[in-house]
Amino acid sequence: MAGGAGQSGAELLAFAQFLDSSPQPLVYGYGRRNLHELRAREFGRLAGTVYLDHAGATLFPQSQLTSFTKDLMENVYGNPHSQNISSKLTHDTVEQVRYRILAHFHTSPEDYTVIFTAGSTAALKLVAEAFPWVSPGPESSGSRFCYLTDSHTSVVGMREVTAAMNITSIPVRPEDMWLAEKQDAAAASDPNGQPLHLFCYPAQSNFSGTRYPLSWIEEVKAGRMRPVSGPGKWFVLLDAAAYVGTSPLDLSVHRADFVPLSFYKIFGFPTGLGALLVNSRSAPLLRKTYFGGGTAAAYLAEEDFYIPRESVAERFEDGTISFLDVIALKHGFDALERLTGGMENIRQHTFTLAQYTYAALSTLRYPNGAPVVQIYSDSEFSSPEVQGPVISFNVLDDNGNIIGYSQVDKMASLHNIHVRTGCFCNTGACQRHLGISDEMIKKHLQAGHVCGDDVDLIDGQPTGSVRISFGYMSTLEDAQAFLRFIIATRLRPSHGQPLPLATPGEAGALPAESEAPNAVPATRARRSPSPQEDASPDARVWDNSPTTVDAVSLRPPLLETTRTQQTPSEKAAGIPDGGLGSHIVTNLFLYPIKSCAAFEVTRWPLGNQGLLYDRSWVVVNHNGICLSQKQEPRLCLIQPFIDLQQRIMVIKAQGMEPIAVPLEENSKPAQICQSKVCADRVNTYDCGEKISSWLSKFFGRPCHLIKQSSDFQRNARKKRGKDQSACTTATLSLVNEAQYLLINRSSVLELQRQLSTSG
Fold first, then answer.
1. Could you tell me which residue ranges the Aminotransferase class V domain spans (predicted)?
2. Distance between CA 265 and CA 270 in Å, rounded?
3. Using alpha carbons only, what angle is made at residue 64 by residues 62 and 66, rounded to the nearest 5 degrees?
4. pTM of the full structure
């Protein structure tokens, strides 16, 4: 399932050449609507950013949010369960949005009902709990719950609900459905329509973008295609969450019984709101146990008496729906139509970008002819009917070995390219495309790998892949910036120098401290350390008197250590005895503010967390999220200097007056706040409004400086050895995972050479 053959070399496929060579007409953009103007006007926040995770969450346009905010400021929307004027306005607006949703999917209230949920996952759970399952008995084998193995975790999770009802769950492979033998409808259907079965499959795979035939809906319901043999009547749940973000869905033609979806996949906003579209013929079969506010026509508190409301939507929408978010959908539909002209235009535009990127990736070859990427696809991107704007792939080295997706993700982040990595909550498709057996999944779990982590290779085998996906506001420049990134990091011209990046500013300065352990060239050994700090080591030195006893110093002769005995790891690696020679520490740097410039010293005290005040502070945004150079490259321009005698840290930056910050908390009680550093919750305190205003002025957005509380202890626990259960504990500041970071000079020189060469 790798990409097809292509021309050797590192040339970027010309878009005009691609269009001319296409056997079918392709559409880029939205006719008279200027895409670049749209992008600049509605998505100015994307300047300098290449966002390629629209299958995860697409982005909202500025006008949508402006229009929605104006609506809220000009109208009073009350609880729709009340009877006052503002509540009546809310009820009527919500009902109008229901009609708008149904019209978007080419159907009407006579044929479908919109049940608002917290998202597609909640909609799936609702179906699992309310479907009229028939347990096996003397006269019936019971209902069957079948799902395509290429399904989202939330679909597969329905089997836990059915298992509690003693219902058999059966996974069905895509190959089995493609090869399923069509049967005569009359012979296949049970005259009594019992028992009732449910088949779930995605309109579009969220792993590979494969679009499965919508014709399966009627084929399965009519009994001409059955996921498994046996008597009974089949219902179909079409998981449309990934599909409807970039493609129209006509429910007047493809009459699925249940259609779950999430609106942020279409509009980007609001999040946390979805719907279950229920076919009117199937709705009466749904059973409900729990009843919440607004769902009862009548009930008694002291007697088991409850009558549900007649409306299907009111019966299943427990409690007050998120009515302001529902109202926001109206503005989402308006913006989408105004900016693009409709979903068919979006489908054509996004597919053109995906097919171009697929074709360009497929042509990339190393000098030895080996492909640069392996693409996971069932469709060869032949048409938008069979393929969505999603490309799942892994990067290869010139020997055909897979480079872990975490490495690709880290490198992409340094170029401000946003991708998705892992299995994307679709283990079945991941196993199928990557050749991962059930036994390997269990072995990976025992090795410590869980869904969503960055363990990308185990025993040289991938645990996931890289995914890029396009949205309606994606541009050719996005696609080409990504392609140039792959070329620049994987291929080199004949003279041996790395290719320049697509646009200036993508690569920033040296990698941030928070990114350093993984920010290594793709050609390096994956498990070799890469301890670069995040600012160049030429920061000015602040001379301090050696007033403390616990100090490390550099003075002639330079700090030097010599070993004569080998460590076990050196012996295991086959390093000759004494081959490492002497170790000389030539420079000492600390980074008082995490991700900012270095502070070089010749003598410095040691604390219980390593070098005193090393990474004790960090800059956070208005939400308290720690900033790194990935989000804010100008952090490298902040230069802190520590004066131990005056007990202050002076912070400088070009164009700003120097500002001093106390090294320790003052006598006033500090407000303690919690921040997250490398998955650890740490107690910190805000260093005050003065430094906050200084930083906010420099960065042009609200920022704060926080410091780890002196009475808070953060520990790192690491096993001593592979076969030892004992652990050693080190006390950490705001570092990633170790008190000290060592780097050899040759690595620094090589990094500087590559940066100079790339311009």
1. 50-482
2. 10
3. 70
4. 0.79
Q: How many CB atoms lie within 10 A of CB 419?
A: 21
Give the active site residue among 423, 425, 687, 703. Answer: 425
Contacts with 580 (C-beta within 8 Å, 6 or more apart), sequence order:
563, 570
SS3 513: coil
Give residue-wise pLDDT tens across range 485-502: 999 999 854 334 443 333
Nearest to 7 by CA among 355, 371, 363: 363
Question: Cβ(592)–Cβ(616) under 8 Å?
Answer: yes
Angle between helices 323-340 and 343-363 (to 10 degrees): 70
Is 703 catalytic? The answer is no
What does the block give as tokens for 222?
Answer: 């009519």
AA letter at 23: P
pLDDT exceeds cutoff 80 at 736: no
SS (H, E, C) 537-598: CCCCECCCCCCCCCEEECCCCCCEEECCCCCHHHHHCCCCCCCCCEEECCCEEECCEECCCC
Instruction: State how far the Cα of 133 lies from the Cα of 183, in Å rounded to an integer.
Output: 24
Query: Reduced to 3 states, what is the DSSP secondary structure of residue 486?
Result: helix
Distance CA 417, CA 485 (A): 9
Residue 643 has pLDDT above 60, yes or no: yes
Q: Strand 196-202 to strand 144-148: parallel, antiparallel, or no bridges (unpaired)? A: parallel
pLDDT digits (tens, 9 = 90+) for 283-307: 999 999 999 999 999 999 999 999 9
Provide DSSP, 306-320.
Answer: EEE-SSHHHHH--S-
Write the Ramachandran bin of 691: left for phi over 0, alpha for psi from -120 to 50, otherwise beta: alpha
Per the DSSP assignment, residues forming a β-bridge with 317 are: none
pLDDT digits 0-9 by tens, 377-419: 999 899 999 999 999 999 999 999 999 999 999 999 989 999 9
The residue whose two tokens read 């938008």 is 384
Task: Quote the DSSP letter at residue 9.
Answer: B
